[in-house]
Amino acid sequence: MAQSCILIALAGFITLLVQATGKEIAISREQNVWHKANATFYGDMTGAKTMACGYGDLFKQGYSLQTTALSTALFDGGLACGACFEIRCVDTPQWCIPNAGTITVTATNFCPPNYQKQDGNWCNPPQRHFDLSMPTFMKIAYYKAGIVPVRYRRVLCNKQGRVKFEGNGNRYWLLVLVYNV
């Protein structure tokens, strides 16, 4: 029983690697295309744990505070978990930090829509929105801005260290998380 579970997990992992390779080719074609979005921030200067993508402690997993929650339009039902985005503040010189350049963040969470606020929730479809950790937001924009227009593009992730595996389960199910892919 355990051997068949391991074989199934291994087959699934190989399938994901093949799919990821195809996505990397598509991403490399799109790297020069910048899209419009908005960005805000959450939390305080220490950041927070996020759960939507299952990463848990982002510091332990090596992501630090260079993370973002994505709006429905970007989250893609969870398929964007682990994706990397390059972001720059634009069009608001009073709020964008001069010569700040860009930041690169990893998608680790979902910014849920709030349909009670039709005009007030940046995460409602079809809006493209990044909810950054406060320290990361403050690398490109001033705190008082609250929300800024940005341009973004999907980029290949540049992870440090080796591929990490984490497993959990019981006799009915097996969970294998793969990090730094």
Automatic annotation (TrEMBL):
<comment type="function">
    <text>Causes loosening and extension of plant cell walls by disrupting non-covalent bonding between cellulose microfibrils and matrix glucans. No enzymatic activity has been found.</text>
</comment>
<dbReference type="GO" id="GO:0005576">
    <property type="term" value="C:extracellular region"/>
</dbReference>
<dbReference type="GO" id="GO:0016020">
    <property type="term" value="C:membrane"/>
</dbReference>
<keyword id="KW-0964">Secreted</keyword>
<dbReference type="InterPro" id="IPR002963">
    <property type="entry name" value="Expansin"/>
</dbReference>
<feature type="domain" description="Expansin-like EG45">
    <location>
        <begin position="50"/>
        <end position="162"/>
    </location>
</feature>
<comment type="similarity">
    <text>Belongs to the expansin family. Expansin A subfamily.</text>
</comment>
<dbReference type="InterPro" id="IPR007112">
    <property type="entry name" value="Expansin/allergen_DPBB_dom"/>
</dbReference>
<keyword id="KW-0732">Signal</keyword>
<feature type="signal peptide">
    <location>
        <begin position="1"/>
        <end position="22"/>
    </location>
</feature>
<dbReference type="InterPro" id="IPR007118">
    <property type="entry name" value="Expan_Lol_pI"/>
</dbReference>
<dbReference type="Pfam" id="PF03330">
    <property type="entry name" value="DPBB_1"/>
</dbReference>
<dbReference type="InterPro" id="IPR009009">
    <property type="entry name" value="RlpA-like_DPBB"/>
</dbReference>
<keyword id="KW-0134">Cell wall</keyword>
<keyword id="KW-0961">Cell wall biogenesis/degradation</keyword>
<dbReference type="InterPro" id="IPR036908">
    <property type="entry name" value="RlpA-like_sf"/>
</dbReference>
<dbReference type="GO" id="GO:0009664">
    <property type="term" value="P:plant-type cell wall organization"/>
</dbReference>
<protein>
    <recommendedName>
        <fullName>Expansin</fullName>
    </recommendedName>
</protein>
